[in-house]
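The protein record reproduced below.
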Amino acid sequence: MIVRIWEAKVLPRRNDEFCAMLAAEVFQSLDGADGFEGAELLRSVSEDDHRVLVITRWRDEAAVRAYAGPMWRIRPVWAEGEFGYLEHPPTVWHFAPIAPGG
């Protein structure tokens, strides 16, 4: 399994709208992806921190590559319409679970 963590810093006062868009559009599109095993949408609880994380779980490297493309290790996936919500382009990291439950 590969855990993909996508992070974006959202413009102030756009978090609610951005999170609603991610939940409605992005998460629905992930449901049909081969090798997709689940996701979480997280946002900072601090009033002055506007970060949002999307944590996805994938069966293996081939599944992540099929979703994110050949540059999957360094290039985040985002839609053109998301730029109006973001302070800068998102970043992405990948991890392998090592504890029970993963």
The radius of gyration is 14 Å. The first helix runs from residue 15 to 30. The domain at 2-95 is CATH 3.30.70.100 (Alpha-Beta Plaits). The mean pLDDT is 90.
